[in-house]
Amino acid sequence: MDISLLRKKPQDRLRTVFPFGGPEETAEVLFCGREEMAEVQAVAKRLLAEGLSKDDAYNAAYGRVALRGWSGLVDGGEPLPFTPENSDLLMIGSAEFRTAVIVAATSLRPGLEKN
After folding, report:
1. For the chain, what is the largest distance between any 2 Cα atoms, rounded to a whole number of angstroms?
2. Assuming Cys at both sites, which of 14, 15, 61, 67 could form a disulfide with 44, CB separation 3.0 to 4.6 Å?
3. H/E element holding 102?
């Protein structure tokens, strides 16, 4: 396992683009190191204060920190724009999407980088 990714500054960290669902559906996720994980904690704390459950707050927080965009996702045939609200909807409502994002955000596996 190559741990060099952990030594990079957050702005220099690699992003992963992974297929989700069909070949046209992709999501872009930033690798989350220590700084980003602290940001996940802070965002989750704020969402808890807004009334979300603990699980929903942390799932949404991961999306708000790690997700950098997507393409090919649709809602009723229309392209789904990348917004915090839509990110929350997917991260809270779709276990498959949520798991893929969290794994990509915390993985040191080579070969997934976009940069």
Report:
1. 42
2. 61
3. helix 95-106
